[in-house]
Amino acid sequence: MTQTQLSRDTFNQQLLAFLDASPTPFHCVAEMSRQLFEAGFVRLQESAEWDLAPGSYFVTRNDSSIVAFRVGNAPVEESGWRMVGAHTDSPCLKVKPNPEIKKQGYLQLGVEVYGGALLNPWFDRDLGLAGRVNYRDQKGQLQSTLIDSGRAIGVVPSLAIHLDREANNSRSVNPQTDLPVLISQPNDDFSFVALVKQLLLEQGVTEVSDVLAHELCFYDRQGAALIGWENEFIASARLDNLLSCFIGLKALLEGDASQHSVLVCNDHEEVGSMSSSGAQGPMLESVLRRIAGTETAWQRAISRSNMISADNAHGIHPNFSDKHDANHGPLLNKGAVIKVNVNQRYASNSDTMASFRELCSRLGETVQSFVVRSDMACGSTIGPITASAIGVATLDIGVPTFAMHSIRELAGSKDASSLYRVLSGFYQRLV
């Protein structure tokens, strides 16, 4: 491994800062772009001609998906690409286009549930608001910018148990009626548009004529933290899957510049990946084809390439161990998890699993396996989507996690840095 590899403590502190800086996919991509640019990566525009000499580059789409890559010294068709994939989105509450609800003297904002969120944990949390706003400036030009309230401006209050005596036995959540977010006790002139304009003003955007559209979501204002008696755990929102985005980013930044390497972080995985910037869209294939240059070079390069899809895995919960197959219960802080499913909900096969195990062995890192119970449905990742779209040999792995899709998730403080070491070795072609 290189001499520049981060220590576990340094890595975890940088991870916590990354999580706090990335309340939405837009902010995640902005933060990744900043770090790539500072490391010397050149930003490309999809609409421009590319002249790709050996070097380091990145390109974004929709401000919410990113592909970063290194062009190595040898022809790519002779070596193929080493690729890592993750996703930038997480389940959340997204603000509706016309969200204002004024009732009993309160202003609430109506929301849609994005992805398969655990809804009960969203109650009684201090919520910030962040995302992208499109507006017309005072010169009549269309503009867009990212906003972040930077403070808690909303809450979804629970109904007191005195008014719902069965709450601890069976409280269901109706997303339409139970989840509108309480914002204010406004005067008659206050509105959602006024709120957005105020947030824009606070961030120095003063030339706003009309707010035309937005993609905003609420997020937990409690910051990422190391917790546990000996700081064994990382607690944060959006560990699924910003954890993998950060691990892949740091591994790529450390990588050998002479090797052909790729990191792709797609939006919209939590809702099926079917978008122009999702894994079912053409973004990754388009970038790879432009790097390869010719159809023959593309085909030859793909046949020599390997993909690791990194997305969190279900750690075995001590209170609910019966939800796991007894032989496949990953433990936090015991290493990355190879995810297997015979129905191809994960893309791992014996070749890709063996290579990963060998890499972990050489680096002295432990590895675990996850298979869903045979009587339960299995989730999926961008792994099978990417494998089937471009024909690349793929492995699905992840860091074991508790409370996946909750507003606050939990992972082991050793596992992220362990996977960082392994993916660094993958990019450096140690196996």
Description:
Helices cover 27% and strands 28% of the residues. The strands form three sheets. It has a nine-stranded mixed β-sheet with strand order 1-2-3-13-4-14-18-16-17, sandwiched between helices. A six-stranded antiparallel β-sheet has the order 8-7-10-5-6-9. Strands 11-12-20-19-15 form a five-stranded mixed β-sheet, with helices on one face. Strand 2 (55-61) and strand 3 (65-71) form a beta hairpin. The mean pLDDT is 95. The protein has helices spanning 8-20, 25-38, 76-79, 175-178, 192-202, 239-254, 283-292, 295-303, 350-363, 382-390, 415-427; strands at residues 42-43, 55-61, 65-71, 82-87, 92-103, 106-114, 127-137, 142-148, 181-184, 208-220, 225-227, 233-236, 261-266, 306-310, 313-314, 336-339, 367-370, 393-398, 400-402, 409-412. It has two domains: 8-90 and 237-427, Zn peptidases (Aminopeptidase), CATH 3.40.630.10; 92-220, Aminopeptidase i, Domain 2 (Roll), CATH 2.30.250. It contains eleven helices and 20 strands. By secondary structure, it is of the alpha/beta class. Keywords: Aminopeptidase, Hydrolase, Metal-binding, Metalloprotease, Protease, Zinc. It comes from Spongiibacter pelagi. Its EC number is 3.4.11.-. InterPro entries: Peptidase_M18, Peptidase_M18_dom2. This is M18 family aminopeptidase.
